Amino acid sequence: MNKAYQVKVNGALEISVSDKDITLLDAIQTSDLKYHILHGGKSYSAEIIDSNFDEKTYKVKINNNTYNININNSLHQLIKDLGFEIGSTKKVDKITAPMPGLILEINVNIGDIVKESDPLLILEAMKMENVLTSPREGIIKSIAVEKGAAVDKNQLLVEFE
């Protein structure tokens, strides 16, 4: 299977690179982080100056020009689309019902300061009690439901300031 990578250079230029493109690259590793590359009849000297694997960012020096590069594959894009990327929970400003159910208990009030993992409310669904916890530290801005209320999937429950 031919994998595709989305490469962004200096935050602007976007290039799609495949496994086949990589295997056709005429590059020789000359030392730990240095490479000699031949492309289109021209010779290039490349060095990886800095890298952050978690953020998929690299700083590469090619013939004395420095480039900031981000590399993502289809799995990285899927993780981002699903909201599972590193630090994504810190951006959450509202809690919605993950499934239809009944609000059994509300453990917070408007203006309360909550910490990550504090219980916000209990939702009964399919005869099971589900404790919905805070994804981040914050202040409760609004509570859109009342105890005993029936809720639909994706209905707004709690908002953060």
Fold and architecture overview:
Strand 5 and strand 6 (57-62) form a beta hairpin. The strands form three sheets. A seven-stranded antiparallel β-sheet has the order 2-1-7-6-5-4-3. A four-stranded antiparallel β-sheet has the order 8-15-13-10, with no helix packed on it. The protein has two domains: 4-79, no CATH class; 88-160, OB fold (Dihydrolipoamide Acetyltransferase, E2P), CATH 2.40.50. Helix content is 9%, strand content 54%. It is mainly beta and 161 residues long. The chain contains two helices and 15 strands. It has helices at 19-24, 74-82, and strands at residues 4-9, 13-18, 26-31, 34-39, 42-52, 57-62, 65-73, 94-96, 101-106, 113-114, 119-125, 128-133, 138-143, 150-151, 156-160. The mean pLDDT is 88.
Strand % is over 45%
Structural class: mainly beta
Distance between the termini: 46 Å
Number of domains: 2
Order of strands side by side in the largest beta sheet? 2-1-7-6-5-4-3
Q: How large is the radius of gyration?
A: 24 Å
Largest sheet: 7 strands, antiparallel
Mean pLDDT reading: 88
Order of helices and strands: EEHEEEEEHEEEEEEEE
* Global geometry: elongated
